[in-house]
């Protein structure tokens, strides 16, 4: 068993073998060691032993290189996609996430190459499984070309991490960043592929580590993204081919080496990796409203205005944005390095404007940073962000409408209004008219006019919209007062 590694290397024990069992990476040389005997790995030990079958070459991993400390020229990125048969039920999600990552790199001056693997690598030489060389995303129609190539991919076969990674190391293109997305442990290695096909041995992991070491030796940072239930357990194998830092929810992914995520979050993870690698943080606002008389929040839709500011980096423009039909607004903060020393304090606030006249007010703000809830105050949410962060805030507004009514009473003799001061003989029959106006902020229902001197008035209807009026009437005799 290895107990230490040289500088710039790290050890891997345990590793995950079989169908998900964690196994210490250590080997017995036999019941006894006899003087004068030579014990050779691959025969006397580290040999055939079910899931512990080894190549006979002791593995250790190179420390993962860091990303270039530049942000102006963009990155050269290799996207390595697992197209094995187990991905079949989620291939649409995989494609959407991969395309979303390319979209997140757009505008950064970066380039992307596509690599695939299943039992071998590439999965095949056809359009639904082949590799594609690097293209500059921002040139011509390359963005659409890359996404169309991703859309053409199909799945089938077992899983060979080794060849998937090795083909990138063997490429003539120098890459700053390589991202392997896989949903299962390696069950094959080498070319031609060998291995159990339905479980994992030390040998398949060792070969993958050797290939990852070759890629790291070229200065390429290697990230491993394990997605789905098959890689939700011990991350030892993901760690072995990438680096020692696992991603923690709520933290920027820019410093992480390996990730474990459900399929539902894969798009967010890959987008965050892309934004962080190109020195960006994303800011998103969602508008939710609860209208007067309703019990549930709903998408706020268009017409809501928000402002953003940032103490560091460069905030995308305009700083004030008005939501469209989707009820959202978004910004990007661009930093000068993937690892800024000082975070940016991003402040978000709502400009109510005419909405306040309609009874709307800000009820609450809820924010998450990289998927983890953070505490904010209203009316302005302020959160520190750094490269690779994804800040999402929901502004919740409620509508409080105050009802009000105005009634003006007049007296009439036929078609002639009786003015103040006019004399009317006692016993004269007078028509009383009541001009009823809804002067509040909400519709009125069940309206009835009752006069303690005359009795109930007759009204043409019982409901009034905001600002609407109606005239009610009643008839009664004038009685002289003492």
UniProtKB/TrEMBL annotation:
Query: Gene3D superfamilies in the record, alphabetically?
Result: von Willebrand factor, type A domain (3.40.50.410)
SUPFAM superfamilies per UniProt: vWA-like
Positions of the VWFA domain: 76-273
PROSITE patterns associated with the record: VWFA (PS50234)
Task: For the region Disordered, give the residue spans.
Answer: 308-329
Record SMART domains: VWA (SM00327)
Protein name (Swiss-Prot/TrEMBL): VWA domain-containing protein
